[in-house]
Amino acid sequence: MRKFALIVLSGLTVCLAGIAPAGATIVTVTYNGTVASGDDPIGFFHAGDHLDGAAYKAVYVFDTSLGETLNSPGWNYALGGSFFGSPSPALSATFTINNVSLDFVPNKLGFIQGIHDTGSLIQHDIKRLAQLGPTTETVNLIHRLDRLDSLFPSSLDGPFSHTVDSKDGIFAIVDIEYRNFVTGMYSAYVHARLTPTNVTISSGVPEPSTWAMMILGFAGIGYGVYRRRKPAAVAA
């Protein structure tokens, strides 16, 4: 049993050492706001044909070490995706309206940018294009805030929190289309302009539940190795 514990501990040490540097590059960006104007004729979000005034939440997860990157005191970005032939820094995204969430993995484009100069800008842009059977999926989600002052940091990994005010220039949209190319019918057709009210940016840290799953996984691997080694030792 002692050998089993040592195997598990060794596995944890190696794996945790391996993920520590990468963890610092994981960035979670959360926008909350309302829909300025938008149409949802199929009722994908179950909020009626028009989404005007509906509350929304958008959560992006980026790995800022992926794709083409630029790092400088006043300008940083990570850009990639299949459109550029490089890994996308966008790992996942969730867009929610009316307690209905769309979770997806952006594959075509991922872009995260921060500029801090005489003015400042933060931008998060993702795009998914996929085909599942006869259904083509298109999802485009963009948030861009800019100011004439230098309030926004150029750092991509936060921590940062901002309540949107009248000094912010805003460009924020979501487009969602799921279309069956055989029948020509849409199962999702959402186009909306968004008005974010606040944004938070933080470096990602695994949730307690994630740590628990990792530990259990390592324990399982260690126990499997232990069981395989034990008969060999007895035979010897």
Low-confidence stretches: 1-24, 206-236
Number of helices: 2
Assign an overall shape.
globular
Structural class designation: alpha+beta
Strands, total number: 12
List keywords for this structure.
disordered N terminus, globular, 12 strands, 12-stranded antiparallel β-sheet, alpha+beta, 236 residues
Task: Describe this entry's structure for a reader.
The structure is a single chain. The protein is α+β, with helices and mostly antiparallel strands and 236 residues long. The chain contains two helices and twelve strands, in the order H-E-E-E-E-E-E-E-E-E-E-E-E-H. Strands 1, 2, 3, 4, 5, 6, 7, 8, 9, 10, 11 and 12 form a twelve-stranded antiparallel sheet that branches. A hairpin with a 2-residue loop joins strand 8 and strand 9. It starts with a helix and ends with a helix. The N terminus and C terminus are likely disordered.
What's this entry about, in short?
The chain has about 240 residues and is α+β, with helices and mostly antiparallel strands.
